[in-house]
Amino acid sequence: MIRVVLVDDQMLVRSGIRGLLDLTPDIRVVAEAADGAAAVAVLAAAMPDVLLLDVRMPNGSGIELLRAQQGKLPPTILLTTFDDDDALFDGMRAGASGFLLKDISLERLADGIRSVAAGATLFRPALTERTRAAYEQRGGSRAPPGCERLTGRETEILALMAAGFNNGEIAAALGPSEGTIKNHVSSILSKLVVRDRVRAVLRGLELGYI
Question: Which of 46, 76, 154, 174 could serve as a FRET partner for 165 with CA atoms 20 to 30 Å apart?
Fold first, then answer.
């Protein structure tokens, strides 16, 4: 069973998401909080596998919680709307594993939680185009000195990483062995000068690969 803590200031949103997840056989909301400040104690007591975290809340936003507790939170999915581009980039830099829209379907919500619980990132292609365009409008950076360009295959794998696929799923989609995909992912991290998959996706967005 995947244990989830849900943090959102809107009771109707929390009730709706909890009701949806109650329909799944393997995911349960085990605790809730209405803001980032209250979430700290809740997380310590519940010890969840995944955190669903609203981006904008009073009395301690999701971004503030990510920054304050960086490295201490479980894999975190930001719950957002299309007008939260700036906050999304801040959240990704603070260590979020991905983001989902609040009006998402049960299937996508459950699949997203399962993916993040398994160690994947979750930056869906439907949103990456918007966030990439927004970043470029704000003057997104180009490749840093000494940063190697990704190959075509590595770019393809990076896009699948952004869509939430783990190494095994990428291997099934593209054909090579999982070990080969793991080597490609290591090369991507090295070339983009980042230490994990989340930062690889963020750098890929910055540089226009995805």
Answer: 46
